[in-house]
Amino acid sequence: MATAANLEDQIRTIDPAEERAFMDAIDRWMEREVIPVIQHHDHNDLWPEKLVDQMAEMGLFGATIGQEYGGLGLPATTYAKIVMRISSHWMAITGIFNSHLIMAAAVERFGTPEQKMKWLPKFASGEIRGGLALTEPNAGTDLQAIRTVAVKDGDDYVINGTKTWISNALNGQCFAMLVKTDPNADPRYKGMSLFIADKRDGLTTGKKFDKLGYKAIDSAELIMEDYRIPADQLIGGVEGQGFFQATGGLELGRINVAARGVGLAEGSLRLATEYAQQRETMGKPIAQHQAIQLKLGEMVTRARAARLLTLDASEAYDSGERCDFEAGMAKYFASEAAVENSQEAMRVFGGYSYSKEYDIERYYRDSMLMCIGEGTNEMQRMIIAKQHLRANPV
């Protein structure tokens, strides 16, 4: 059985032919099932139940979970390419399995053997789906400021507090929940623990947020009122490890956000390229006007650079090394590329970009989330700078 220590040393690989076959299957699924229903679900903010069932059948809820637990065991590089491909048409649905896989990664990397055997096969099959419960009304990027508290009571813990902006809160059944088991610990991170928090008495969902973009996936509150949970659902079985368990999982989360940014940047480029060759002004396609060519030249370069940074971070993750530096750069650059490319594509489309009949307005609405989610880009730049300075002392 792999331990948390040696799991980091296992390098997952995939045969190139197998990867191509999997990507081809994703393309067929997108063409037949996803693309025809995107606008309906996005404009009406409807949970895509049928698509979620299909994602479970394809194994996407077990994409990065080890094969010994029933998952696909895909390397992060392949996983990132899948996210890029799907996000180039619709970013929101990748969030449904991304948050779930961060939860699963926390259990797989840090859980006890009993926790892995109990939970990971159900996570991999999609029988139990969920996400990550970190954010609170007064604690976002500063995770050490959380106020949700777990108190030991016999063979259980009793949890009270509120989590907010939790992806899959309504339609998920289980969450990796960060709480304080020692509110008086100094430094604060030593008093934090991570639990496998399944829905049961005492845990309820609050309001669903009406968002600018990122539609069809639910984002809502989780409210814990005397929520009693068995002590054997403390990940790893030892209190005080939660901060590092949660932030370790964010490496995969930031690679996912970077991949989503790449997809949005590439999708915006695709739409702008097609439209620029179809729309005519002054007797010729606007793609022949220098002003549009300058935009396209910047967009294609930006998208390519974002892809390469994301694959670089994915390779670092697959090597088993800590990759918060690479993942931070990829997340920062790719998310900004998504915003800039979608905005430039809006300019290429002109007035039509403001119509919901055209998909480009969705890319524009969705892109800004990538700069905020999984740690703000302001924080990413600070992390990048500190790591760079540490590696280059004078």
What coarse outline follows from CA principal-axis ratios? globular
CATH top level of the largest domain is Mainly Alpha
Percent of residues in beta strands? 5-15%
Are there runs of 5+ residues with pLDDT below 50, and where? 1-9
Oligomer: single chain
Largest sheet: 4 strands, antiparallel
Number of helices: 12
Question: Summed up, what is this model?
Answer:
This protein has helices at residues 4-7, 16-34, 38-44, 49-58, 76-87, 92-110, 113-125, 242-278, 290-318, 324-349, 360-372, 377-391, and strands spanning 130-133, 149-153, 156-167, 174-180, 192-198, 203-208, 219-230, 280-281, 284-285.
Write the layout of secondary structure elements.
Layout: H1 4-7, H2 16-34, H3 38-44, H4 49-58, H5 76-87, H6 92-110, H7 113-125, E1 130-133, E2 149-153, E3 156-167, E4 174-180, E5 192-198, E6 203-208, E7 219-230, H8 242-278, E8 280-281, E9 284-285, H9 290-318, H10 324-349, H11 360-372, H12 377-391
Parallel strand pairs: 1-4
Antiparallel strand pairs: 2-3, 3-7, 4-5, 6-7, 8-9
Helix pairs in contact: 2-5, 5-8, 5-9, 6-7, 6-8, 8-9, 8-10, 8-11, 9-10, 10-11, 10-12
